[in-house]
Amino acid sequence: MNIFLKIDNMIKNTILNLDTINSEYSFIFEEAVADRYFCNCGEQFISANEEEVVDLQHVLSGESEKDELYGGIYKDIKLSLDKKIVCPHCDKNYNNQDVKRKLITIGEFFISGYEFQETDTDLIIYYAKACPGLAKREDEDGNKEYKVVFDESIKYIRFEKETKKLFYREFGDSPEVEFGLDNVIRYVNKFFIVETDKVIDIYKLHLYINRLANFVSDTRNGNIVHEFLSFIRNTPNDVGINFIKKLLSIFYGIIKYSNLSTIALTKSSQFLYELMLECEIPSSEEMEQSGATSPVNIFNFLVNKYINKLNEEVNEDNKDAHDFYFKSKNRVEYEKDTNKSEDDLNYKVVDEDVEASYLVRQNKSYKGGKVVNADGKFQVLDAVEDGTISKFIYKKIENFSQYKQIIKYFKFYDKKGVISLLQKYDLELLTHAIDAFYFRSKMEPGELDRVLQIIESFVETRFFFKDYKNVKDFSFVEYDDAQLMMEVMEFDPKKHFNKIKTYDELVEYHDNLVKFYKVKSEIEKSGAIEEFVSKFRFLETVGEGDYEGPLEVVLFDTAGRIMKEGPEMRHSASEYAVNVAQGTYLMGSVFDRDPNRPAKEMERYTIGFKYDSKYKELVFDQVKGFANELGSNRFKKLVMEYLTDKDISFQPIKDLRLKDEDGVEKL
Length: 667
Ligand SMILES: [Zn+2]
Description:
six-stranded mixed beta sheet, 26 helices, 18 strands, binds zinc ion
C-alpha cells in the first residue's frame, strides 16, 4: 500500500466538535446595506443600516483601509448610541458588551483546540482552528435560505513510534516535513502558536504527553519523566501551554538524542531547555559524531557555538582585537622606525586554588587576559573552550542564564581570575553585577573587589528586601565624580577612596569631596584640564584646507562640563572624566549639522579620544549618542571623514562600523 495514502487516511480532517457551538455564539454577516444576524437562540434576522450609509457617504465612498477603519468605528458608535439591535425572538440586546463579545463575524477564526490520536504506528497531536462561513440555498420560488457552517484548519505533529521520527504539517495544503533534533524547538514553537482567544480541549495535550512519555523514559531518566507527569497531574491549573511547549521540546530532544537527559538529571529540565534554545543545537548525527555522552561533555560541545557567537560580539567592540583602519602620519612614521615583530611566548601558570594547571599561550600584545592572537585571528574566550573551566562553571551554576552572565567576565579576566571570582562571591551578585560594568573599561582585580562589595552593600542597604535584581539601579556617578574631584584636588585615592567597601561610605565620601571642591576656584578646578585640552583645539576648527564637513565638535575643558555629560547623555562617559584630568583622555560633543540628517536621528553625541603617549597622538576611542546609542551609516561616514581630515587614527569598532541594509554589520 502506498505509504502516503496510508498517512492521508490516518490523518483526521475534522477535530473540533462544534455541534453545540451555535447555541453558545451568535454570528453576523456584514454587508453594506444590511447585516444578517444568526442569534444563538436559533433566530435569523436582518438589521438594515441604510440610514448610516447615507450619513456616512463621504466616509465610506473610498475603499481605502483608513476609510474602512473609520467606517467601522462610526458604525460601532451608531450601534451603541442610536440604533438598538435586538433579537425579535429572544429579545437579546446586541448593544450589550457581553453579548457583543460572543458575536462572531463570518470569516473570523474564533475557536481552536487540540486533539490526540494514537494508531498502531503513530502518536499524533493536532491543533485546529475554526471560522464560521455562510452557506446559501435558493428554492424554486426564489426563496433564499442561509446557514452558518464551520471551516476547520488543522496542523499537527506526528511521531512514528517504531522509527522515532518526527513530522510536522502546517495549516492549509502544506506538505508534511520531517524534523530532527536541530529543529525541535522551531517546530514545537510553530505548533504552539495559539490563534484564538478561546482554546478548548487542552487536556488532550496532557493525554498526549502521558503517552509520549513512554517513548522518552528509560531506566536512566525514568524519574525525571515521572516528576514531570506528576507535576502536570497535581497542578493542572499551573500547567499552561508554555510549560507544555517546553516539556515537549525536552521530550522530543531526548527522543532524538537520549544522552541529553543527563543534563536534565544533573542540572534541571529548565537548564536543558535553555541550553537547547540558546546553543543552536545540532542534528542528532552531529551530536553522535561529537562523542559527547557525559553531561559536562555535552554541555561543552553545545556551549561552543554559543561562545563563538559571543566571541564575535565581544571582539566587535574590543579595540585590542582590531588593527587600525586609518593611521595618522605620526603613527605611520613611528611604526616605520620601530621593529614591530612580536614573539609568542609560552609559559605555564599553575593555579593554587583549584587542582588544575593551565597552559596559557600569550603574546606581547596580550592585554588583560582577554585576547589571544591565534592563526592571525583574534580569539576571545579561548579559555572557555577548554573543558576545565566549563566543568568548574557547570558545577556552580543552576541555570543557563547564569552561564551567559558568567562568561561575560571573560571580556576582562582570564580563567584563573574568573574561577577565583566564583569562589569568592555569591553567584547571584556576580551574574547581576556584570551588567553594571560590562561596557566600562577593565577594572584591575583590586578595584573589581571593591566595586563588587560596594554593589553588594547597595543592594543590601538601599532596598527593603535584598534582591540582586536591584543592581540595575546602581550607577557609577558618585564613583566617577569622586575620582575626577580627587584628581583635580590632588587627593591620593590610596588614602581613603581605595578603602571604601560600602555604598553609604562612597556617597558620604563623595558628598564631602563636593564640599571641598565647591570652595576651589575655577582655575584650580579646571586649570590643568584646560591646559591639556588647549593643545587640541584644532579638533574644533573648520575651513582653510582643514575639515569642511557638517560636524561641529566642541571640546570639554572644565571639570564641571565633563561631570555633567554622563548624567545628561545617560551613558558611561563620566568614567573617563578622571583620565581627562590626568591628561590621557579628551572628551567633547559632536553636533550633526548635516542638512540631510533625518529628523528621527540624534543631533548630539559624545566623542572620546585616547591620548597615546607612546605615539604622542590622539586616537579615536568612541562616539556615543543618548544612552549609548550608535549613529547611522551616514553619521559614521561623516565621523570617519572628520577623523581622516584631522589625521586621527581609528579602528573599525562598532561605533564606526557600517551596517548593511539588514542591519548586519559589514566586516
Ligand atoms: Zn435570539
